[in-house]
Amino acid sequence: MVLVFDEDCGTGIPKALWLVGYTTHNLFELGWSGKKDIEWLPWVGQNGWLLFSYNRKQLEVPTERNAIIDNRVGVVYLTTGEESAPRVLLLLLKKWGALELLDDGIERPFVRFLHPNGHITETYRGVQLPQSQWKQRKLL
Question: CA separation (Å) from 42 to 15, 22, 56, 91, 100?
Answer without folding.
Answer: 23, 23, 18, 27, 21
